[in-house]
Design goal:
Radius of gyration of chain B: 22 Å
Number of domains of chain C: 1
Low-confidence stretches of chain C: none
Shape of chain C: globular
Order of helices and strands of chain C: EEHHHHEEHHHHHHH
Strand content of chain C: under 5%
CATH class of the largest domain in chain B: Alpha Beta
Strand order of the largest sheet of chain B: 2-1-3-4-5
Strand content of chain B: 15-25%
CATH class of chain C: Mainly Alpha
Chains: A mainly alpha, B alpha/beta, C mainly alpha
Number of helices of chain C: 11
CATH architecture of the largest domain in chain B: 3-Layer(aba) Sandwich
Low-confidence stretches of chain B: 15-26
Oligomer: heterotrimer
Largest interface: A-C, 42 and 40 residues
Mean pLDDT of chain B: 88
Order of helices and strands of chain B: HEHEHEHEEHEHEHEHEHHEHHHEEEEH
CATH topology of the largest domain in chain B: Rossmann fold
Structural class of chain C: mainly alpha
Mean pLDDT of chain C: 86
Number of domains of chain B: 2
Number of strands of chain C: 4
Chain lengths: 311, 408, 295
Amino acid sequence: MSRRVTIAYLAGLALLMLAPMFIYPILVMKVLCFALFACAFNLLLGYTGLLSFGHAVFLGGAAYVTGHALKVWELPTLVGLLAGTVAAAALGWLIGSLAIRRQGIYFAMVTLALAQMVYFLFLQAPFTGGEDGLQGVPRGTLFGLDLSVDINLYYLVLAIFAGSFWLIQRTIHSPFGQILKAIRENEPRAISLGYDVAKYKLLAFVLSAGLAGLAGATKTVVFKFATLTDAHWHTSGEVVLMTLLGGMGTVFGPVVGATVIVTLQNELADKVGSLVTVIMGAIFVICVLAFRRGIVGESLALYRRMIGQKP
Amino acid sequence: MMKRKLLALTLSALLLPAAGSALAQAGKISGDVVKIAVLTDMSGVYSALGGKGSVLGAEMAIEDFKAQFKPKFKIELVSADHQNKADVGSNKVREWYDTQGVDMVTDVLNSGVAIAVAKVTTEKNKIMLNTGAASTRLTNEDCAPNNVVHYVYDTYALANGPGKAVTKQGKDSWFFLTADYAFGHSLEKDSMDAVKASGGKVLGAVRHPLNASDFSSFLLQAQASKAKVIGLANAGGDTINSIKAANEFGITKNQTLVGLLTTVVDIHALGLQTTQGMMFTEGFYWNLNKETREFSRRFFSRHKGMPNMLPAGTYSAVLHYLKAVQAAGTDDTAAVMKQMKATPINDAFAKGGKIREDGRMVHDMYLVEVKKPGESKEPWDYYNVKQVIPGDEAFQPMALSRCPAVKK
Amino acid sequence: MTEIFGVPIQALFGQLMLGLVNGSFYAVLSLGLAVIFGMLNIINFAHGALYMAGAMLTWIGLEYLGISYWWMLVLAPIGVGLIGIAIERLMLQWLYKLDHLYGLLLTFGLALMIEGLFRDLYGVAGQPYSIPEELSGAFNLGFMFLPKYRAWVVVASLSVCLFTWFMIEKTRLGAYLRAATENPKLTQAFGINVPLMVMLTYGFGVGLAGFAGVLAAPASQISPLMGSNLIIVVFAVVVIGGMGSILGSVVTGLGLGIIEGMTKVFWPEASATVVFMIMAVVLMFRPAGLFGREK
C-alpha cells in the first residue's frame, strides 16, 4: 500500500476507535458492516469491471447461516461468522459460474435474476423464518468477553472491518489484482496474453461474495436477527449506489459512500418516509450523469488539478 | 497514556447507565419524562387498521389523562412507521430505548414485527402494550409476562367466534387462504382448531405473501376444494382484495367467505352490498353504548373515520399505563407492571378488563354480523351484535397456556 | 367432476388462463425492453416503474378527472411515452458514448425515483380500480369460468404485439428503424434523423409498458410496488428469449407465463422461481438465449 493510503488507514482507524464515545455504537457498527459490504463489492465492480446486481443475496445468505449457526446449533460466535462467510462464498461460486457465461449487461441481469431466485428460496424455506425473519440470535462471548455489551462487540466489529479492508488492499496490489485490472481495462488483450480470464473472474466473484458474506454475518450478530430485507434487490441496489457515490475503483470510496448513505437513511427515515427512496434514486441519477468518479474520485481529481498534476 | 485514558472513558461510559438505573429504582421518573412510543404501519397494507388512528388514540389518552389526573410529570409521545418489516421496527425500538429514553411502546401491529419488538423490549427491560398484533405466540411461545401485555385481541379470540358460530350453522367444511407469516399461521391454526372442535372438517389451506398483488390464483384453489366456507386468515388490504377477487370470479355464489380479522374500517371500504351477512369477532364497536359513542364521535371529528378496536385499544392501554405510573410514583418497569396487573380496566374500550399473569388482557369480545344495506340507518352503522362473548370464554384459558414462565 | 393428473379440470384450466394472462404481460413488457435495447443498447430498468406509472395514471384519470378506462387505454400510453421522451432527451442521450452499464444504473435510479414518488403520495396499500362495466362478468364455458376481463387482456396484448411486429418488419418506418439499429452512422448519412428515431423508439418502448399498466389496473392491485417484482421476472424472460427478434420475445413471454401457471397447479412452491430456474438451464446450454444472436 502506498504511504498516503497507509496514513489515511491508520488515522481512520484511530478515529473509529474513539467513535463510540460520541456516536451511538449500533449506528457505527451498521456503517462498518455496510462499508465492508461496499468494499467487497468494489473489488468486483471497481477493480474487475463486473457489475453484479444481486450482491445482497450474499449479505443475506450469510446473515441467515450465521444466525442459524448461533441460535439453533449454538456454535461459538467466531465459528458462526466463519460459517456464514463460507456459505456466501459457496453461493458466490454457484451464481458466479452461471453468470460468467454472459458479459456486460447480460451479466448484470443474470446476477439479478439468480439473486431473485435465491431470495424466493429464502422466502419459502422454513429455516429463515420467511417474512418473520430469524429472531433472537445470541451474540455469544469472545475470549470471555460478553458480546451482549455493545461496546465489546464494537471492537470486534472494528477488528473484522480493519482486517478485511487490509486483505482487500493486499489483494488489489498483488499480481492477482493486477490481472483483474487488466481484465477490466481490456479483456480481449488479457485473453490473448494467455490468461484464463473466466477463472480469474470467478475467483474475484467468490472472494467478493465471501467478504460480502462476512459483512452480513457480522451484521446479524450486531442486530441479533436476519431478515429478508438483507437479501432483497433494494439492498443490492444500495451497495451499487454506495460504491458509485463514494468512487468506484478507489480505496476509500466505498467506505465514504457507505457512511454517507447509511447516515442519510438513518436521519431521513423518520422525517421524510418514502421520499428516502426518491432521494436515493436522485443520487444515482446525478452520479451517473455528472459525478461518475464519486466523492473520492472527484476529490482526488480536484486535488491533482490544484497542485498542477494532470488529473 | 492514550490507552489508559481510553480505558477510563470506556469504564465511565459503562458505569453511567448503571448509576442511572439505580436512580430510577429509587422511585423517580427516568429523565423526568414519561415517554410513550407508537410503532405502527403508516403507509402499507395495515395502515387503515392502525396507523395514524392508533397515534390519535394515544394522543387522546394523554389529553384525557392530563385533564382528569393533572400529573406532576411530563408526558411525551413519539411515533414511527415500521413498514411491516421486522428489522425496521426492531432497530427503531432499540434506538428509542438506547438513545431517547422511551419507556413504553404500543400498537406494534403485524405479528412478525411484534415478536421481534417483544424480544428487544425484554432485553432492555421496558414495557410493550401490544394493541395491534394478533398472534397468540405473544402469550404462549414468545411470552414475556414481565414486559409484554397483549392488550386488545388475538388469533384465538378471532378464530373462536366465527369458527364455532358458522360451523354450527351447518357450513362445516372449511378451506383457508392464509397470509404467509406469523399472524396468518397463528390465525389459521387457531381457526382450524375451532372448526374441528365444533364438528367441522378442514379441507386444506393455501398461503399467500403479505400484501399480495393478485389473489386469483389462490382463490382458484379455494374454489376447487369445494369447501362450504373459505376462511380468510389475513387482514387489512389483503382481506379487502381477497373479497373483491372472490366476487370477480363468482366464488361467492356457492361458497361463504369469512374474513377472520375484519373491522368496521374494512366494511366501510368494501360496502354493505359485498359484505352483508358476514360474521366475525370484533373487539370494539363504536355504536355499542353511550360511552363508546361519545369517545368515537370525538375520535371521528379528528380522524374522519370511526375507530376500530386498534385505536380504541391503544387509547385504553395508554390511559391504563399512565394511571399506573402515577399510582406507583415511578416509571420503573417492574413497579408499573405490578400496578397495571393489580388494577381493573374501566373505560370506553373495556369494562372489567383485567391483565392476567401471562400478560393477556382479558375483556369481552363481540360476535357481530354485518347488516344488509337496507338495515343501516347512518354511515358506519354496520353491525348487529349477535353475542357478547365474556372475556374468560373469548380468550385461551390459562390451563392451556404454552408460556414457559407461567406456573399452571 | 373430471380430473387430469389428480387435478380438477376447473382448477387446471383456470390456472392455464391465468398463466396466459401473465404471459401476455411478460410478452408486452419484454417486447418493449427488446425494442429499446435494440436501438439504444440500454437495459431499461425503469420499465417496471413506467408500467406502474401507466396503471397509476389510469387510476388518477378516473379518480380526479373522471376519464374512463377506454380513454385511458389511449391516453396513458401516450402520457408514459411522453415521460419516456423527456427521460431520453434530458438524461439518456448523454450516456450513449459511455459503457452501457451506466444506462442500466441511470434507469435503475429513475425506477427508484418514480416508485418512491408514488409511494410517498399513495402509500403501498394499493388503490382499487373496478373493471369497466362492458368487461365485467364471466363466460361460463362448462369446464371453467372465463372472466371477460382476463380474456380481453390476452386479446389486447397480443394485438399490440402483432401491431408492433407489423410496424417494425413491414413498414417503411420500421425499415428505417432497423437500419438505424444496424448501422447508425450510415443511416444518418442517408439523411435519416437517427436521434429522432432513437427518441421515438424509447418513447414507444415505454409506451408499451404504460399500455400494459392500463391493462393491469383493473386486474390486480395498483400499488407503487407492482412494477418492481415483475420487472425482474421480465429480465429473466429476456435472457431466456434472447433479444434478437420480436417474435422471439413474444413467444418466450407467453410460453413462460403458461409454464408458470402450470407450475402453480402441480408444484406450487416452485411457481415463484420456475422462470429463474429455466433461465439457469438456458444459460448453461444456450447462453445466447433461445432466439438470440450474440451481439
